[in-house]
Write a structure and sequence with these properties.
The chain has about 400 residues and is of the alpha/beta class. The protein folds into two domains: about 170 residues, 3-Layer(aba) Sandwich (Rossmann fold), CATH 3.40.50.1400; about 160 residues, Rossmann fold (3-Layer(aba) Sandwich), CATH 3.40.50.1400. The strands form two sheets. Strands 2-1-3-4 form a four-stranded parallel β-sheet, with helices on both faces. A four-stranded parallel β-sheet has the order 6-5-7-8, sandwiched between helices. Helix 6 links the parallel strand 3 and strand 4. Helix 4 packs across helix 13, helix 5 packs across helix 6 and helix 7 packs antiparallel against helix 13.
Length: about 400
């Protein structure tokens, strides 16, 4: 994405917004400009997670939290609960966030950054509201949030920002606690590197087993979302087309990875790749992004494919939708199709990824010039302050948010 000072489509936002249009923001972010170019002090970092159950008794209450307001009966939720119960009712996502917090803290300390790190979840303990109260009680009222999601969409960005606003409003801390958010990091080098390494290992493995380049397919997998939400992901003025910013960002990262591996002679010219989706949960009458990963796997033998690498490009860690939807269902689909298959790793606490997250914290604190911010695709670097109407949920409308221009 170009520097907004050179982009006429974005320049007006830097001059027409006011502090009232970016609720709960620090002074440096309150103008509503797309990029923050004034250094800012923070009291703490807020690591914001999705949350997950940590025992069988937690599963249904957790799923009720995730689906609140949608009127889904417990009988339907219990169908989803079987995925968690298969693993003892424990989602690995909370443990991952504990490890990620420790890794970020260690990296920050190595750079002489003494900010405390709070961890709060949207859907399970520790809840964001409780953590924000804890931070405020300790005198930490200027928080820089790092959401555990890299892409633009309602569920992967705006909903986090709604939860930040709710945490401030419901605790009576509006006007006391301010929350900014680092930019989305889909194309920062440290996020992309672990995926590229995983694809490279898979391709070398297939080559060593005698598969020709044209017999191998790379499937970059991410969570499916309603097409109406996808179309509204990211600023509408960018005109990113079908799938909005959500699809465009994933496709750009996939292209970057495969281009790099071809340049390094790891991927052959005949090795195809595509973006696929998983974990659809909406009613059949509601259009969601396609194709489904398992459906594509079933079709690949008819296209001459004999080996497939499934890359969890939309996920930071091996949480339930990776362990079940990919490791169980996608691998079963590959076996049924007679394909050799491997699922590549998520970033987890890969040092390059952790370092990039801390880079983003420093970038925001020091107001690094846009031209110096690391990014690997033409879509980056993404915005510091989310744009008006960004990532609308058409079923819910616009709720109060933090870290972005209203609505």
């Amino acid at each position: 994405m170009p520097d907004p000072t050179r982009d006429p489509a974005l320049t007006p936002h830097a001059h027409t917004t006011s502090s009232a249009q970016v609720p709960h923001a620090t002074e440096a972010s309150a103008s509503g400009a797309p990029y923050v170019l004034t250094a800012q002090e923070y009291d703490a970092v807020l690591l914001a997670g999705f949350g997950g159950p940590e025992g069988q008794e937690d599963v249904l209450p957790f799923l009720r939290n995730v689906t609140r307001g949608r009127g889904i009966p417990d009988e339907r939720l219990e169908e989803v609960a079987t995925h968690y119960r298969h693993f003892g009712g424990v989602s690995p996502i909370n443990e991952h966030n504990r490890q990620l917090r420790e890794a970020i803290e260690a990296e920050m300390r190595s750079r002489g950054m003494e900010l405390p790190i709070y961890w709060g979840n949207r859907n399970w303990a520790p809840y964001l509201e409780d953590v924000v109260q804890e931070a405020a009680a300790a005198g930490h009222t200027r928080l820089l949030a790092v959401a555990t999601s890299a892409y633009s969409s309602y569920s992967s960005c705006r909903q986090y920002r709604e939860d930040f606003a709710r945490a401030v409003l419901d605790t009576g801390l509006a006007g006391v606690v301010r929350i900014d958010k680092v930019r989305q990091f889909f194309d920062v080098p440290g996020f992309v590197q672990p995926f590229a390494e995983g694809v490279a290992e898979a391709l070398r493995g297939f080559a060593g087993q005698g598969f020709a380049a044209e017999e191998i397919r790379v499937l970059f997998a991410t969570h499916s979302i309603p097409t109406a939400d996808a179309e509204r992901s990211g600023p509408q003025e960018l005109g990113l087309g079908e799938g909005g910013a959500y699809a465009a960002q994933h496709l750009a990262v996939g292209e970057q990875i495969m281009g790099r591996l071809r340049a390094e002679d790891v991927a052959g010219d005949g090795t195809g790749w595509e973006l696929v989706y998983q974990s659809r949960s909406g009613p059949p009458s509601q259009p969601w992004l396609e194709p489904d990963v398992c459906d594509r796997i079933a079709e690949l033998p008819g296209e001459g494919v004999k080996a497939v690498a499934v890359v969890p490009l939309g996920f930071l860690s091996d949480h339930m939708e990776v362990l079940w939807d990919l490791d169980e269902e996608a691998m079963e689909a590959a076996e049924e199709a007679g394909l050799r298959a491997v699922r590549t790793p998520t970033p987890g606490v890969h040092q390059a990824f952790v370092s990039s997250l801390v880079d983003l914290v420093q970038e925001r604190m020091e107001a690094v010039p846009v031209s110096e911010r690391p990014h690997l695709t033409e879509l980056g670097p993404w915005y510091d302050v989310c744009r008006p109407g960004c990532c609308e949920n058409v079923r819910r409308g616009f709720s109060p948010v933090a870290a972005g221009v209203v609505p």
